[in-house]
Amino acid sequence: MDDFKQLFEERRSILDGKATQYREERDSWNEKTKELVSQRNEFNSEVRELIQLSDQQKQVREQMNQVVREKKGIRNEASKRVAELRTNSDRMNRQKKNRLNVALEDDESAQLLSNHFSVNLADLNVNSNEVNTPERTKERS
Length: 141
Description:
The chain has helices at 2-117, 121-124, 134-140. With 141 residues, the protein is mostly helical. The chain has one domain. The N and C termini lie far apart (145 Å). The model is unreliable at 124-128 (pLDDT under 50).
């Protein structure tokens, strides 16, 4: 019976050694897990801060985009106004040019008449500003 007792003691000693080894490994892994959990929590905290910063930047960007949209609207209105003014200016320049051409034609006609009839323009008191053209008649009425 002593042999059995000794055999059981040896086996028990072996099992206690393995149990101690496994317990130490478990404790080591638990420590490693705690370190990794702590590291993960630090990363998550940093990520939350970066997300908050990103959200703030998005708000600033959206505000600036709104300002840009407003400025573009103002620019578009101003561009339309400039185009209208150019169109009106071009129209007025063409009308002035047409009136000038008519006045020049009237001056040339008066010159031809004076040459033909041997009449001095000064004697006729002909002035291109006083010549009645259809446009001037419309303007006066």
